[in-house]
Amino acid sequence: MNPVDTSRRAFLGGTAAFAGVALAPGILLYEYAAAKAPGEAVSSAVRWGMLVDTTRCASGCTACVDACHSEHGVPKPARPTDAQWIRKVELKDLRTGAVRSAPVMCQHCAEPPCVDVCPTGASFKRADGIVLVDRHTCIGCRYCMMACPYKARSFVHEPTAGQKTDTPRGKGCVESCNLCVHRVDRGGTPACVEACADAGHRAIVFGDLNDPASEIAQRVRAATTTQLRADLRTDNGVRYLGL
Amino acid sequence: MRVIAAGLLAFVLAGVAWAGSRAPVLDAPRGEKCVEDAATMRRSHMDFLRHQRDETVHRGIRGARHSLAGCVECHANAKDGAVLGSPSHFCQGCHAYAAVKLDCFECHASRTRAAQAGRPARSP
Ligand code: SF4
Ligand code: SF4
């Protein structure tokens, strides 16, 4: 994501949203009206998404990043080539000095460029909007990494060890945020959302954007939220408030 | 293709010669019985797994009958909670005997959830 693109107008929109949140605090009920049974197939009636409230996200906090990597058995990234599923980004408006901090991960695009370019069909979008890599089919060509506007994907360069049962991962495949699909399929919430709430910030809301009664749908209806690089019209499932 | 065919043949022969003196001695599984009878599993477990993996990855169907994680939970070594590691570990032992390359665990966890969490390797 390119910080320069956070135009002055977007920032002004953000301040208005800031006030909106302050007026209605505490509406943080977790409900999943459309949770499916584990044995049921996913359906397009659901569109999973996340809302990142940058007014609540704490600068310097990495609770979501740490939780993600430990949930998926990804070693703490140390080198530029290490896999990284989610990262913290700081944005500064140079004119006003306003600083916003937010996690950036796969945006679960409705029109995902990674899927468009994948020559094998390994990159795909599930019916419920979650974008995944089927590692059984991925040949590691990394086209998807080039195509992703958000640098959300990583290539695994070295043999892996200590995998988690729910997150197979190995050398030679590309991987990225899978929205904790193993949890979501069982009616749960992504690890980052939980960790952020546990850290007391509650800056990430997860839910079904298609369900008008869900918290996330109500929040995105009530306030102006931003899709990163909305000009690309990838229609991201992850939205940001206060940018 | 020929290599795979030879592998499969060896595997089938292994099933036929199961009671033979050179059959591997494998870790005893947990529980009364497998999801299918032993002969069916020996011959077809790879097909079951391949079918279910697509159902799970693409359609989000969880908790069905033929899951690799399920294999590991029941067949792991009672001490270290793994299906790989020595000629008596369940998956490795048989695949080595049948001379079939075992790729699953280059990506998938080869240890039980309990072992990953540092708890006793396998529930009794
Ligand atoms: S953010 Fe990148 S990896 Fe995720 S769906 Fe969009 S293009 Fe694909
Ligand atoms: S690296 Fe894998 S998922 Fe990405 S484009 Fe190539 S085959 Fe598809």
Task: Give structural notes.
The complex is a heterodimer of chains A (243) and B (124). By secondary structure, chain A is of the alpha+beta class. In chain A, 23% of the residues lie in helices and 17% in strands. Chain A is built from seven helices and ten strands. In chain A, a hairpin with a 5-residue loop joins strand 4 and strand 5 (131-133). Chain A is globular. Chain A starts with 7 loop residues before the first helix and ends with a strand. Residues 5-34 of chain A have low confidence and may be disordered. Chain B is mostly helical and 124 residues long. Chain B starts with a helix and ends in an 8-residue tail after the last helix. Chain A binds chain B through residues 36, 38-42, 73, 124, 126-128, 132, 134-136, 159-160, 162-166, 168-171, 173, 181-182, 185-186, and chain B through 53, 55, 57-64, 69, 72, 106-109, 112-113, 116. One iron/sulfur cluster binds next to helix 4 of chain A.
Provide a quick synopsis of the model:
Chain A is α+β, with helices and mostly antiparallel strands and 243 residues long.
The H/E string of chain B reads: HHHHH
Q: What is the assembly state of the chains in this entry?
A: heterodimer
Instruction: Give average pLDDT of chain A, whole number.
Output: 89
- What structural class do you assign from the helix and strand content of chain B? mainly alpha
Work out the number of β strands of chain A: 10
Fill in the keyword field for this structure:
heterodimer; A: 243 residues; alpha+beta; Alpha-Beta Plaits; four-stranded mixed beta sheet; 23% helix; B: 124 residues; mainly alpha; 5 helices; 0% strand; binds iron/sulfur cluster
Detail the topology: elements first, then pairings:
The complex is a heterodimer of chains A (243) and B (124).
Chain A: H1 8-23, E1 48-53, H2 63-71, E2 86-92, E3 99-105, H3 113-117, E4 123-125, E5 131-133, H4 143-147, E6 154-155, E7 174-175, H5 181-184, H6 191-198, E8 204-208, H7 215-222, E9 225-226, E10 238-241
Parallel strand pairs in A: 1-10
Antiparallel strand pairs in A: 1-8, 2-3, 4-5, 6-7, 9-10
Helix pairs in contact in A: 2-6
Chain B: H1 2-16, H2 38-59, H3 68-75, H4 90-98, H5 113-116
